[in-house]
Amino acid sequence: MGLSIDEIVKVAPVVPVMVIENLEDAVPLAQALYNGGLKVLEITLRTPVALDAISAMVKALPDDAVIGSGTVVTPQDLQASVDAGAKFMVSPGTTPALIEAAKNCDIPLLPGIATPSEAMNLYTQGFTHLKFFPAESAGGVSMVKSIGGPLPQITFCPTGGINLEKAPSYLALPNVACVGGTWMAPKNLIAEKKWEEIETLARQAASLER
After folding, report:
1. Model confidence pLDDT, tens digit, residues 53-62
2. Which residues are registered as beta bridge partners of 152?
3. Which of 10, 87, 103, 131 is catalytic?
4. For residue 70, which of 90, 124, 130, 165 is within the disulfide window of CB 3.0 to 4.6 Å?
5. Of the residues 7, 10, 21, 42, which is catalytic?
6. Is 39 one of the annotated active-site residues of the chain?
């Protein structure tokens, strides 16, 4: 049995959200982030090589690395993630079909929400850990804090528009376990294969307190 979402979100304060354009970048990027202290990695299913990238990372990194898929939209995405070796999945939002498939899946889903009603709906179906997305556009820190008033039993991983400067305000909230972001692995550094610089950015992110 793999890790639960509750266990995964406690591993590191930040989850890198990655878009892999070239398969050759997958393993060195993952190793740089892992070496910097970020051991939970989300690879979005936005490119043709994403699933192969997940498989390559799972094989190359140590067993304590937690490799997952993001931008999971359909039940087919769920199955493809499992087949690729992902240990968790993240969705930007939800549909009834996706949630039903997730309930019968071998690996956990962190479903995305942007409103209290969506959070309540998923909570009644057994989901206590949710992605708040798009965080900055959907109300930011004040929105997550406000939702925590009537729904303190739900834990969030806000993602979307968050950077190193904004992350601490989210992590200070009692209902936030971690945040997702892309700032530690920007496209230009990946394109230029500057893995040491990415490792340095990862180390800064991993040192954030919560």
Report:
1. 999 999 999 9
2. none
3. 131
4. 90
5. 42
6. no
